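Subject: complex prediction, re-run

Hi both,

The earlier run crashed halfway through, so I resubmitted it with identical inputs.
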Amino acid sequence: MEKEEILERVKQVVSDVLGVPAEEIKAENEFVADLGAESIQSLELVAAFEEEFDIEMDEEAALQVQSVGDAVEFIARYLKG
Amino acid sequence: MKVVVFEDEHVAELYPLVYLRPVFDLRCGIFSLKEKLERKFPGVKVFFETRDELDAVAAEKYGDQMVNSHEAVRADDDLLLVNAAAILTGDASAYTQRERIGVGEDKRFIWAFLGKDTVQRIGAPACIGLAQKAAGVVPTEKVDDILIRYPWDLVHHNAKQITDDFRRYYKPARKSEPLRGAAMIGPDENLYIGENVELQPHTWIDCRGGPVILEDDVVVTAQTSIHGPTYIGPGTRLFEGRIREGCSFGPVCRVGGEVEESIIHAYSNKYHSGFLGHGYVCEWVNLGALTTNSDLKNDYSTVKLTIGSEQIDSGMLKVGSFIGDHTKTSIGTLLNTGSVIGIMCNLVAGSSVLPKYIPSFCWYLQDRISKGLGLDYALNTARSAMDRRGAKLTQAMEDLIRQTAQMTAVEKLAYVKKDRKKVRQT
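This time it finished cleanly. Structure:
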């Protein structure tokens, strides 16, 4: 899967969870600082990424995923194996 | 004579209560199972055999020469082997009159008394082996001693154990004087008040139904009522609580609201309103305000619980919640009848009662079981909670928690995935 596709799908997931329009979400946006996520929602985001991409994110590694771009990188690395 | 207490192969039936403690550290009545044994046989050396993963934690607490030591089964003395889940209900002399094995109705090993020569003849490196070999050598008979098989057995026996422990090992006393306005009803021989106990005005103690024991440094704030038989451990504070019969708390608990026929281990808090009934709460648990559990089904049928991968019918109508160490609940959490909650869970109230079984290290958030923020985060929370009470998370305990996380990881992931699917289907 190409990164561009991953990015579009991540944006949609973030939009669904945080209620921000997908077209307003950028790769550099941080979930908490820029998109208004609460701490509980960060868990929901992780669960939603796992569901969307059929992956498992180690909890400690998931803590490092702070932005849309971080999520794309993580998922791309995971899918590449 | 020496006594050796050992965990048998049924330990998993007591999860999650025994992930972080040996079976003999479970509490029932005034004392733990271990303490009861030590009091029954004063001056006798008591050795312990635990699961390998508990070796360091048990050794830290009881001394490594007493835990998993070869000296335990050395043929240098008569030996009383005791199942770690046993409560020996008879007088001490009843167990050492002659060589025999005592078993329960299900033929499960409860205890055995073996003379030194028999120990030497049959020899085994550990107690389980010794117990098995002894079965072919000394008579076996059914005995009436208690064997704690499942978590709810501890609660079921608690009230009577409080009374029995009190009658055997306590003398009624009033070492502190209640403040003016505190009221008591019931016979004096059912009351024990320790040193430095503060019983504030408008507190009510009713020991007509059984003994009430307030250990040293207990504080009972105004508007609290306590009904015996009930044991309040050292340093515990009660805040406008309605403490009904059959409760054992502490040491160093903070308890308020309504509690009935429940056991709360050291350093756990249920400070605010909310009902806890027929439950067992391990150490370092915090039950947020208005956390409430059900202990009776609406149709009055017997309560079924999940133990491991099995659904077990308790055969009882009144069964509450069983909550592992370091678990926290948010305000307003509703626990269903017969809930089993693992260790180090973080439960946030949902739109209804929570699932009856939540594996260790899980979070419950927005109506689904989820992974949480990881083990390091959970350990940091544990350290913070312990720091508030001047306690420290030792390396041995941290290692055990990490090992338990590994041991339960597959189960946790299975439940997380199952709930994810469930949410998707809605």
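Residues 395-425 of chain B form the longest helix (31 residues).

- K.
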